């Protein structure tokens, strides 16, 4: 895939970029290793000052970088501004909390005395150079939620971003440079996917994090495993959105639309499978389809646009294949199901609601990365849980019920990294984020995320000799 900015609203190639050659990759690896040798010894106050400065610059750049993201991958410009603001918030959060999250831990003396220790501590030390392989769908946020904790922990970063968002990738390197981070602390590598293996196998790279597809995750995990290097993977999702009879139906419907079409439906944690109790199925489905049908599909630079284009022609083709397969096998489209006729240019797709989904349809098992929702009818809580878990993924989930006993059952039985009650799944700096099953492993954000790329070091102190 060429490294290029291609406007998904028009299909026009706006800029192309040359891949880095072997000599330049080597120079950057050396710079990263040198930077880590010095940067790891800086204190939290210094790192926090730099991170807060980066947040301030990002706030000042919000409109410019929002338009860059919209141009490169098609998200509505209002959503792009919100993404930039969220990134600045996360930077400030880690600047404020990293020292506390990584403070030395001292086990009680009576618990370590029989180990011969006069005292003992646990210290979190940075691992080193971390390679981040990141996707295009949240081109700023996906990177910052790795970079902010990694840099605050004393690591340095190498970013291999998606090939269709090169200008956003270069902006991030420049942002941290302008904030005053030492040279080599955060570098963007404009390389294709074939270069990842060589970089990851380099002895100067200590660990890797990847957000992306299941095949990409398998590849990076296999290489890192062969090299015995730490990885964190956040892969696909097919999140259930369960609606029970006690739900506030109007809020559930309104939130369902946002949960499905956020980021033009291109989000791992977007609700994709709507599992609705029979008692409220008809009312929910009618309102949901009506609201989806009313969404404005159009130019993502327009403030009134609800849904912009998909990020790539291939992405739209993949989505069409899933929908067409379902329709051929008997599914019903309550709205959408095709390209909009008034948008001949660009990679647009109509907001779509499908019912009558059966296990033989590909869409029952595979992730839909676009504004397409599948709606199921279930007879009770047990059937809802069974259907929610009938997927190879386990990233997050949404459950609408005001019954405390039902909430406890869902919290216990749903196989996912998160269960959000009476609201929409979201990522937040203070809460751990990640999945189970084929959605990956490890956690981003919160204290769990910042410790992923730390050397958890035991410090053991024996008795000093008498008279020493």
UniProtKB/TrEMBL annotation:
Q: Which UniProt keywords apply?
A: NADP, Oxidoreductase
Domain (Aldehyde dehydrogenase) spans: 3-458
Give one Pfam family, short name only. Aldedh
Cross-referenced CDD domains = ALDH_SSADH1_GabD1
Which regions span the lipid bilayer? Answer: none
Q: Which domain of life is it from?
A: Bacteria
Keyword Oxidoreductase (UniProt):
yes
Family according to the record: Belongs to the aldehyde dehydrogenase family.
Record's protein name: NADP-dependent succinic semialdehyde dehydrogenase
């Amino acid at each position: 895939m060429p490294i290029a900015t291609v406007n998904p609203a028009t299909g026009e190639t706006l800029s192309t970029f040359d891949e880095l050659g072997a000599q330049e990759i080597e120079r950057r690896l050396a710079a990263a290793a040198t930077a880590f040798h010095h940067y790891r010894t800086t204190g939290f106050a210094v790192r926090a000052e730099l991170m807060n400065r980066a947040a301030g610059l990002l706030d000042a750049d919000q409109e410019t970088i929002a338009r860059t993201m919209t141009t490169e991958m098609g998200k509505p410009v209002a959503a792009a501004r919100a993404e930039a603001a969220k990134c600045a918030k996360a930077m400030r959060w880690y600047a404020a909390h990293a020292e506390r999250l990584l403070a030395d831990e001292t086990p009680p003396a009576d618990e370590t005395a029989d180990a011969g220790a006069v005292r003992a501590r646990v210290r979190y030390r940075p691992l080193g150079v971390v390679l981040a392989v990141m996707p295009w769908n949240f081109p700023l946020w996906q990177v910052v939620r790795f970079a902010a904790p990694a840099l605050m922990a004393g690591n340095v970063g190498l970013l291999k971003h998606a090939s269709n968002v090169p200008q956003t990738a270069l902006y991030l390197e420049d942002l941290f440079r302008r904030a005053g981070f030492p040279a080599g602390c955060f570098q963007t590598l404009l390389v294709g996917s074939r270069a990842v293996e060589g970089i990851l196998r380099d002895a100067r790279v200590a660990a890797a994090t990847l957000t992306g597809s299941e095949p990409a995750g398998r590849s990076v995990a296999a290489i890192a495993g062969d090299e015995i290097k730490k990885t964190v993977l956040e892969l696909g999702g097919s999140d259930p959105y369960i609606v029970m009879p006690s739900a506030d139906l109007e809020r559930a419907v309104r939130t369902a639309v946002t949960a499905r079409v956020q980021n033009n439906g291109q989000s791992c944690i977007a609700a994709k499978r709507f599992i609705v109790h029979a008692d409220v199925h008809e009312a929910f489905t009618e309102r949901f389809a009506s609201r989806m049908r009313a969404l404005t599909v159009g130019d993502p630079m327009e403030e009134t646009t609800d849904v912009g284009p998909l990020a790539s022609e291939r992405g739209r083709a993949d989505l069409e294949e899933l929908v067409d397969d379902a329709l051929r096998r008997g599914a019903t489209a309550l709205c959408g199901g095709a390209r909009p006729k008034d948008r001949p240019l660009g990679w647009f797709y109509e907001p779509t609601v499908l019912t009558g989904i059966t296990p033989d349809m590909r869409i029952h098992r595979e992730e839909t990365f676009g504004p397409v929702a599948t709606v199921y009818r279930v007879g009770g809580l047990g059937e809802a849980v069974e259907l929610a878990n009938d997927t190879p993924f386990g990233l997050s989930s949404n459950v609408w019920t005001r019954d405390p006993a039902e909430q406890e059952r869902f919290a216990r039985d749903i196989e996912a990294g998160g269960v959000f009650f009476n609201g929409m799944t979201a990522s937040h700096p203070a809460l751990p984020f990640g999945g189970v099953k084929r959605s990956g492993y490890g956690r981003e954000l919160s204290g769990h995320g910042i410790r992923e790329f730390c050397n958890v070091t035991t410090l053991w102190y024996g008795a000093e000799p008498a008279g020493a």
